[in-house]
Amino acid sequence: MITGTTRLIAHLGYPTGSFKAPMIYNPYFEREGIDAVVVPMGCGAEDYPAFLRLVFRLSNSLGALVTMPHKVTTAGLVDTLLPTAAIAGACNAVRREPDGGLTGEMFDGEGFVRGLLRKGRPVAGRRALVLGAGGVGSAIAASLAKAGVGALGLYDIDAAAAEALALRLARFHPALGLSLGSNDPAGFDIVVNATPLGMRPGDPLPLDVARLDAASFVGEVVMAEEITPFLAAARSRGCAVQVGKDMLFEQIPAYLEFFGLPSTTAEDLRSVARLD
Amino acid sequence: MITGTTRLIAHLGYPTGSFKAPMIYNPYFEREGIDAVVVPMGCGAEDYPAFLRLVFRLSNSLGALVTMPHKVTTAGLVDTLLPTAAIAGACNAVRREPDGGLTGEMFDGEGFVRGLLRKGRPVAGRRALVLGAGGVGSAIAASLAKAGVGALGLYDIDAAAAEALALRLARFHPALGLSLGSNDPAGFDIVVNATPLGMRPGDPLPLDVARLDAASFVGEVVMAEEITPFLAAARSRGCAVQVGKDMLFEQIPAYLEFFGLPSTTAEDLRSVARLD
């Protein structure tokens, strides 16, 4: 129950209608007796820079979950950008430090990597291919790099976007082997679709599935359906897969840790969420 | 449960620790299936003017409950000040109009008057004495005037404060009979203590109780204890009384109406509140 001592996690985005975080975090906070609440705040782009500053000056503010259309803007508004957010060029979480400064981080990719690790798939030293160098692809590439992949292939139909991502990655991970310009999955241990392909019926697959090794682990960010055509094709090749929604739930423990709150497993959060 | 469609009532003040409104409104909203939530926001005075504007630009904002130390400031920040708030010189509620403008109102006095009416005590045409011309005294005087009292006595140890209140009242209620300079309750149908006297043990009584008529109705704003020494003395004179907390609960239906929400009785709100 909300009282005068409850700390706020502002869920900032616009529009708010499809927000899911309140129904995931708040039931967990309630069960655990954590005196915090996620509150959707439909903030437009023109008000966002000023509002972000002011909402963090509230005496009971704890943090912010940032979503569309503010993720990229936020990277330019915080005082400290952690490396993963700097590589992604976007933030989906902000907290206030004891000195009043704002720190931004990006957990989309962290959710992807945690999902892999929890499924018993090692990441350190492995070879990963990320298709799509937009916001979520950049975040996944950044988190794979942080988790210690040995080699990273980047591909985007906009070659300049992939090149820009490679430059950002190289700045923070100078020893990482980067390759560009191919969506051929052969030889990669981890293959991720972070393109929008699969969101609409009739979309082409993001790569030539016939080139997928059965030993490759295949992940997806599209959540339009649990098993997208791409994941179905990868499964039929014998690959283990990770669905888009896993990334969503796997990142929440990372957010909780970032905010200094007691954390739990993604499975536990999923079991207590009230998404229906 | 809070979702992406939930509308926000910002509870603005500082500090927030003693806020009670969330535990009164939110259980009622939950029981009634009203998709709204009262959220405490500890906003400091220096941030308040900018924050008030921005919080009302959120797409899901519904209104604001305003408390210490912002009630007087708010009167200077809204676009439209309703007469009761103008007389009180303070607002404790703000809503956004369809044109985007902010309207401010003051319900402390409304709660007092509603409490009287619900106890079967008529107000229209009666003679009332208000002791204390500060924020809450001014609000009660304004609401008594709006409710049609025939004559109003005002008293404050700071005579200038009572005179200023009289001028504000006269502007909106030119026909109202006003008297100043005496705290003698003899001849008044309604007598209100809106001074701080009674908040601390050993405070003197705000008037000479021996001059109270048994037929007078005596009200109190101090909530330090249910029956203050002043109310106890009035009762021993045979007077019917209204305790401070009644004012608190009686004003909530007025807030709900102001925000365009389904309303109920103060008793019902009290029964569903979770204040323990």
From TrEMBL, chains A, B:
It holds the Pfam family ThiF. The keyword Isomerase does not apply. CDD domains: NAD_bind_Shikimate_DH. InterPro entries: Aminoacid_DH-like_N_sf, NAD(P)-bd_dom_sf, Shikimate_DH-bd_N, Shikimate_DH_fam, ThiF_NAD_FAD-bd. Residues 13-94 form the Shikimate dehydrogenase substrate binding N-terminal domain. Keywords: Amino-acid biosynthesis, Aromatic amino acid biosynthesis, Oxidoreductase. Residues 127-159 form the THIF-type NAD/FAD binding fold domain. Pathway: Metabolic intermediate biosynthesis; chorismate biosynthesis; chorismate from D-erythrose 4-phosphate and phosphoenolpyruvate: step 4/7. This is Shikimate dehydrogenase family protein.
